[in-house]
Amino acid sequence: MVSSLLPLLLSALLATATLPELFQKAKSQFKLGAYGDALSTLAALDTESSKPGLETQRQAVLPGLLFYRGASFAAMGKSAEAEEAFEAFLALQPGIQIDPAVYPKSVVTALDMARKNLANRPGANRPEEAGVIATAYRAFVPPAGHADESSREDWADGPVRWILTPEEKRAYADAVNPISRSELIANFWRARDPRPETPENEFREEFDKRVAFADARFAQDEVRGSLTDRGMVFVLMGPPTYSGRRPLKTGDDAADASGLSRYTPSEIRAASQPAGSNAEREARQDQVSGAGTSILEPSANWIEAWHYERVSLPKEIPNQSLEFDFVTKVGYGKNVLQRDQAILTALERSKAIGKHAI
Prior knowledge:
alpha+beta; Serine Threonine Protein Phosphatase 5, Tetratricopeptide repeat; 4-stranded antiparallel β-sheet; 4 strands
């Protein structure tokens, strides 16, 4: 009876620990050679740090979490798992070096192999952050607490909106009770099961993993990551071949020819309205178009570019390559997808591919 309570007590203690405490506990367990215990603590840290509202703290602990996960696997002789974790770690800390006198030889070897694996990946010699998102996604394990949203009344307004057809959305809205909605949801996933003869639904598992990753990595202010523009593209297209940022220059923003205005087009139009005296109208116009209304500091404005080469695209999308540009600019928005015709067509094809999309 006592032994059966120990796992429950351990789980309760881990759940009440702060993120730094969990991290220090995992480090101590690793140093003591308790590699399995370290992995358990790191799993708890992964789950706790993935909770809503902790995005900043997660970014702080994630490199250390990935490093000690890789080191623990390596010390246990699990080289494949170690290299996968180390690749994700190196995507965040590419120039890191470790003291071979401090860590077991297997850890040093696995880290070196992960570095070589990344160097041989497509786009490794490009100036962009080659494969950072793809590498992190390969090592990502959805937190145990990531909820199944099928029971939510607003299910159709969640991340599943990106793959719902108009007919399915109308049918869900017309369903009058929880039982009929539950049946619609079950049929929705069943229709997308690529291998109905197996107990797993590979499409749904991959979709849920993408949603969990987007929620953990792409959250913006109060918006969950999977509902942002980057989250939409990630859910539909998967991880890009490589990605990177560049300063926003005048004309780069396809939705705003000026590129660097502090004011939105609607604010500029409002300032031109014939309200008040001539002096008041001139003052309003000077405020939105005079000196000091352009943003010259490139650090406040950038484009995050996701590049998909042929190998990363679904076979139903005929393009040899695609680039998705997300613009961040004061007065315009954060990571706003630039929706040209090629991008819109690719996204629509991804929605329509069904079970072959993922």
